[in-house]
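Limitations

Structures in this collection are predictions, not experimental determinations, and the ligand pose is part of the prediction. Treat each record accordingly. The example that follows, with guanosine-5'-triphosphate as the small molecule, is included so readers can see exactly what is and is not provided: the inputs are given verbatim, and the output is the predicted complex.
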Amino acid sequence: MALTGRTVSWWVRLRRPCPVAAPRGPPVWLPTGLEACQRFYSSRDKEKIDMSAYPVESIRNFSIIAHVDHGKSTLADRLLEITGTIAKTDRNKQVLDKLQVERERGITVKAQSASLFYNYKGVNYLLNLIDTPGHVDFSYEVSRSLSACQGVLLVVDANEGIQAQTVANFYLAFEAQLAIIPVINKIDLKNADPERVEKQIEKLFDIPVSECIRISAKQGTNIEKVLEKVIEKIPPPQFNTTDPLKALVFDSTFDHYRGVIANIAIFGGEIEKGHKIVSAHTNKRYEVNEVGILTPNEQPTHKLYAGQVGYLIAGMKEVTEAQIGDTLFMYKQPVEPLPGFKSAKPMVFAGMYPVDQTEYNNLKSALERLTLNDSSVTVHRDSSLALGAGWRLGFLGLLHMEVFNQRLEQEYNTSVILTAPTVPYKAVLSSAKLIKEYRNSEITIINPAQFPDKHSVSEYLEPTVLGTIVTPQEYIGKIIVLCQDRRAIQKEMLYIDEHRVMLKYLFPLNEIVVDFYDALKSLSSGYASDKAYATGKFLCERLKDTIPRQLFEIAIQAAIGKKIIARETLKAYRKNVVAKCYGGDITRRMKLLKRQAEGKRLMRKIGNVEVPRDAFIRVLKRQPEK
Ligand SMILES: Nc1nc2c(ncn2[C@@H]2O[C@H](COP(=O)(O)OP(=O)(O)OP(=O)(O)O)[C@@H](O)[C@H]2O)c(=O)[nH]1
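Predicted complex:
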């Protein structure tokens, strides 16, 4: 069973072979062969390649899209191997997943691209592969990567069949009018049923069964067929080198030594070192220091031409200067910017504080450096009575938040407290005083502590998400109840085959952001109709289990405003002060216990409760952890 979603309407009323370019002269070609390629890449590392050998007809720009874990990264590894881009070894696991957190979690966080060279029927092709993240939090990255492509490989697991994100990704590609090649992966699995999956694809996406390719990315079966289809079915880009420069920024990373490295797709013209370019979004001017292709590491080239995909380094100091979707053009030759530019919108907000306030400055610089690399995170300074000075951060989703936190810890050796994640709300103000104060009649609230009083507000608005759920039919009843409980509105219900159903719901984001997926998986959710009391009780119980017992008693209370709605008591951990007191000297025992009680009373007054750092997230997951 699976869920995916993307924000559709933000605000609803809250009612409840390798080319070898000789340094001078025409390009020379090596035979497609692994050893030759290896020699080429090792001996000519960093020597510039001449890309003029690749007119648009020989270029195919494509992406791999799939539901999480259906095998995108494994297929990408095989494509890199078969084209000789990387050597074939057992160690090639998720080559395009460069971050430590990606390898550890087995997920793709940042999209990476790679240029592959392939000789097919005597013609040399340049195939630009853009890997895409699989998790719903990163669907924005999927959509921007797709804008650099003319086609996609839609990978579906032969055992699991079509899942929610297969559907969502299909529509992203379909709406972008891309050629779609269905690839049924994992045919080596014992329970693989490629025939059933092909029928699902035909029924749901109207793609004939004969178009599907059956592969095993793990064992390398039928990978050549995939490349053949890419060349035959995906149209070459239709751009002209003679036009003025028009380059789309579809991703960017930050390198501590070289500044921003922007991944670009050339929609017109050509670009090389020394060119003066302008960003359509910021209007800032830059001089190009280096252009190149990704193989998958940076390989400088003399130029990049229309239709090609590569990278650019031009003295940009922050990733915000190379915003995703931005258009770059030649200085004094302005062009119409490419459509569809939008800044990444954070959907989940949380407070971040140093565990120890003396660590504030270290954390601040770690945050600054990490956000240089991830422009979708927003940072505002914040402070809390209990936790001291900190920040309020905005993320694309809960996984994005967890990944960011993990990167802070792993790459910058910091430890932080993250508060409960919340979604943004809007308030339409009715109080003239507040309207004057905010200089607006509508305000966005990203911090629950700043919620204006309900008497000064005419209505509150909340963000919604269109979610797709694919499930075996026996769970439909329970899922419908769960969705209704989360205030969701059903939009569509469709049988994919005899056993499986696809449901579409409009969800309030707040209802699904933390734990909906867990609830969906366990289907055992059952809180009482009065959610406030039940949730309060649940939170108190969870906190009671999460906070270790201290030397003094702790009252854990849930409150709405000043009204306490639930309470749990965390009993004191009683040190056995009389352990060494053998025998029956009752007065001595009493004395020891009395002294302990006094000590505890004192500690309660001055006591600090030690709350484990991940308590906030664990507490917020409404489902019991397995
Ligand atoms: N048996 C079998 N397992 C496969 C095959 N392809 C991939 N896998 C396994 O499936 C799991 C997920 O594969 P990935 O390539 O990481 O999946 P992904 O779609 O890139 O995942 P995300 O990056 O998180 O979106 C891994 O354990 C792979 O080894 C295959 O053809 N057969």
